[in-house]
Amino acid sequence: MKYVSFSKKKTCKTKVVIFEGCGLLTINNLSIKKYFGNIYNKNYLLIPIILSNLKNFDFIIKTKGSGKISQIFSIKIAICKCILLFNYKFKKIFRKLNFFSIDNRIVERKKYGKKKSRKLEQYSKR
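Structure for Small ribosomal subunit protein uS9, as requested:
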């Protein structure tokens, strides 16, 4: 049986598929170490898997867009949603640990006549 879920953060979109297997976790056909490299909080996305004790399940993750940190947060949310499809009793635990909070902030658009969205050119008196 397959379980599929989606998530977004900024411009990053993530799809997670869980099915019974031998415990592999692949992100865009690469391992975590190869995909995220030396990012210190890459193990942050493994917390829901460890809490739910899903050692015999394979996770196939497809993610694109934004930066690596946003991808980590998006993957974590999608994994939590997928685990809830599998076993709903983890909802209270994940809510307490704030694993479902989706951050809707995106970059503000640049306005005409300004250098950035709010930054103005320096005012000159003379």
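The CA atoms of residues 68 and 74 lie 10 Å apart.
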